Automatic annotation (TrEMBL), chains A, B:
GO-annotated molecular function: 3'-tRNA processing endoribonuclease activity; zinc ion binding
Reactions catalysed, as given in the entry: Endonucleolytic cleavage of RNA, removing extra 3' nucleotides from tRNA precursor, generating 3' termini of tRNAs. A 3'-hydroxy group is left at the tRNA terminus and a 5'-phosphoryl group is left at the trailer molecule
CDD domains, per database record: RNaseZ_ZiPD-like_MBL-fold
Active-site residues per Swiss-Prot or TrEMBL entry: D66 (proton acceptor)
Gene that this polypeptide is encoded by: rnz
Organism: Parvicella tangerina
Pfam family, one: Lactamase_B_2
Binding site for Zn(2+) 2: D66, H67, D212, H270
Protein name as annotated: Ribonuclease Z
Amino acid sequence: MIFRVQILGSGSATPRLHRNPSAQYVNVLERHILIDCAEGTQIQMQKYKVKPQRIQHILISHLHGDHYLGLIGLLSSMHLNSRKKPVHIYAPEGLKEIVNMQLHYSKTTLGFDLIFHPLVGNQPEKIFEDKLIEIWTIPLEHRIYCNGFLIKEKEKPRNISKEAIKKHGIPIAMMHRLAKGEDWVQPDGAILPNEELTINPPAPRSFAYCSDTRYSEKIVDTIQGIDLLYHEATFLNNLKDRAKKTYHSTAEQAARIAKLCGAKQLIIGHFSARYMEVEAFEEEAGATFENVKAVNDGDIYDI
Amino acid sequence: MIFRVQILGSGSATPRLHRNPSAQYVNVLERHILIDCAEGTQIQMQKYKVKPQRIQHILISHLHGDHYLGLIGLLSSMHLNSRKKPVHIYAPEGLKEIVNMQLHYSKTTLGFDLIFHPLVGNQPEKIFEDKLIEIWTIPLEHRIYCNGFLIKEKEKPRNISKEAIKKHGIPIAMMHRLAKGEDWVQPDGAILPNEELTINPPAPRSFAYCSDTRYSEKIVDTIQGIDLLYHEATFLNNLKDRAKKTYHSTAEQAARIAKLCGAKQLIIGHFSARYMEVEAFEEEAGATFENVKAVNDGDIYDI
């Protein structure tokens, strides 16, 4: 029951040798999702053994280069490696025009379908669902239109207690109704409540990616009770004026959001290239929210 | 008197961990030139300690992704690092539109001038000169419009023989005329020919970059007597049909061009990702042209 987040890039605008700009790979129940795709992401995927051809959904937060410039190269490589399966891209409107123009000038017709889902809303919006998961936007406050993303499991069916079933002689045909939470009406008309027949399933797990954004409590409702929160922390708090001016957050602010939404774990990244070491980010955030980690490229977080 | 070529990427379409796609840095007499700029080139520059802010001219051969996708990221980083000096870009026409669209959607106004020099010709054309060097296009045969580039020193002034000057008592004011090749008319009217007063200057040095291209002898005149020739060799000769079909060359074909133009040294690259080792390229080319090297990322060639 995998729900894994792998960091492919944890830096901000300018790439560094050991810290590429933003990209994350999420495998949730074998749904393969790429969030953001900075220049060099396809190389990072090779380095960390993430297979590009498995990616089904690509979520792009916004159209600053450090969040999408690797996309066209990744798509080209998928094409050159004979991909046939479609790729869904969820991104601000301009991206389709940018990608199509680049394909036009290189006289390339991709061998697979590229399905663009333009993002335009300013409220959280469900952009994908199947029988097991949902993906939502998290509108953020940045210099240009920008969304974070919430990936969560759907409520799982209730686990049926084999002993209770046997004891009460409930027919097999009822099982899927019990799993949905229905009570059992016995032949004599007496009602056996569902909670005597089933056990709570594991709680649905969730991950939120919030980058790039100024400190904003507006997102707290959407990510309430999140299991794993990635929140950008471009600066330390002594540069909080600069953070506000450039529509970014500090480590302390990321921690405040994690605390407000009752996150179980916080991971922070998108560090400004001015910082050579990032221990100070963990320390600063840790004073407000204990379970925090400053991420590095290649890190894996299992939920 | 530096004339140095540094390989920043020696692979073809799809990047590999130890072989990035095309980019080369040329320092000719402190003119700093970047030829092609694949995705990840700015990272390669960090790795090989090439300073982006020194680059004055960027030459783009054609609009396949593995030759230009790193450009917008490089320009963004130059901007974020407070560049003020202009950048000249020599490239096929569409590139200006692509770059401007990406700047538009990221709401970025660069802090320096970006001067596009669109390339449209089908004959060799001088696209830059100053007092010491010239840059020419080398039209190539590829699937889309594509140019190689010839970078050469101008003819140097003749070296004046101090002994001859002293012996004949020639005035200082004459020196620049002697350097240009003039004879000296002595006070008695007798002529002292220039070659008795001066020594041949070093021959002007030259470098040609020919990628991507099908085997074509049309380029031989333009690069006749070249000191250092970089010619693409995407395939080995057992795939020469494939090379022709995809508008690429084989190692043997690159060597034939080097031989035909009387090159002093041949370097080959743009190897297809199917080849893990490239010794076979050197061997195949070496049978036709002895002084050949299959390049690796980071290699430096001094002329």
